[in-house]
Amino acid sequence: MKIEKPRGTYDLLPDETRKWQALEDDLRRIAELYGFGEIRFPMFEHTELFMRGMGETGDVVQKEMYTFQDKDGRSLTLRPEGTASVVRAFIEHGLHMSALPFKCFYIAPNFRYEKPQKGRYRQHVQLGIECFGAAEPQADVEVISFAHTVLRGLDAELHINSIGCKECRPVYQQNLKTWLSAQSEKLCENCRTRLDRNPMRVLDCKVETCAAIAEKAPKINENLCPGCADFAARLDVLLTASGIPFVRDPRIVRGFDYYTGTVFEFISHQIGAQGTICGGGRYDGLVEELGGQPTPALGFGMGLERLLLAQEAMAKKEQEKTYRGIYLAPMGTVEECVRLCRELRELGVRAETDLCARSLKAQMKYADKIGVKCAAVIGDDELEKSKMTLKDMQTGETAPCALNAGAIVKHMNLLVEVEYT
RNA sequence: GUGGGUGUAGCUCAGUUGGUUAGAGCACCAGGUUGUGGCCCUGGGGGUCGCCGGUUCAAUUCCGGUCAUUCACCCCA
User: Which of A12, A31, A230, A366 has its CA 20 to 30 A from that of A248?
Assistant: First the structure.
């Protein structure tokens, strides 16, 4: 019986892995520019961490976590998002005593039991960045700017909002709730349940009648406390000064309970219904909530599968076939080829030879398909004279070469120079 | 969790109004006079027609279920 990969997961075959590696290289380079160091943490945590971190109202905690018991009966959960883990590590290692702000990033898989569709998987990789200990809007710009740099040229719109602080949000939410309750009979079934759980979600409903009501509902941005309103205004000024285009969008409501103040999303309209490539914001209360010193903090998560979809949608430059290394075709004895391959690899050159006892013609075909830079036949003549002929597989030109690894490396470098200068 | 579409070769898809050995293109392998790839020609391997059950003399084809996938909702990256 055939066993297939679990639902909502995917394999990366070598060609696709190359794209991922190129992306990861790009991300690490940008992180370096912004001064964010890489952090790595476990794939699973105590279930309690996510329950307390993300809040118990959201779907993710409610029904999408991969939770299991280990042999000691502890409840563990495959990480559904990165922020809780980073905050846990921040507290556990006493990083509030380190140079603040503490800025870090991670590229790591998350796990959620969701129904898969385009741009949504049960295991998906996120780039996440977090910044601890900075309460000024400059920090918000720093984080948003990072995402903006990563998404440059991908046609993703930045939507930002403020959902208020501990002081003004509860007041607003209560007001909104009573306002909406007054006409709950006009709301869709879904929104009626949302009323209790998270009334701000009603503002983002796609049902026409609900959207019409949402139009007239009180807006959070008009009901912020002076502190939050001032913060938002200063953030707008800084974003504008940084040349980062954005729209204020009162419908942006993040799904996790820990968010406070600034929230934002980068949205692409070209990758299907799951258009949010990046989402994040401030969580000034989370460190304290999880047992640390009160510490302002913020960050974002970016779905790399969606980022790659957006890149494809942008018809990014096709990666050209790269020709690397050498193929040694044995005629008769394979001994010298096997030996030379090992030697060349020691010297850092990709080297391959025949593993199937195929005809020379078949070997040349294979050498062409796997994209080596050079090929050479090694038979009795070559062994006798200690000389061989190197063939450039792109141009077809040939060059004599001594039969040893050092000479091969030297000649190949020459060929490379001729080819690319 | 809800609602629709789709499952035939490694890939992209034809086809079967139910009836002998199920097709194409691409890919793969081999040959086209025994030491040089890409083009061309010839040949070849490869499919329990997703899986289980039902109707029938007969199911890949019809029906039901299931699994997978895909699109949307919900939610999120």
Answer: A31
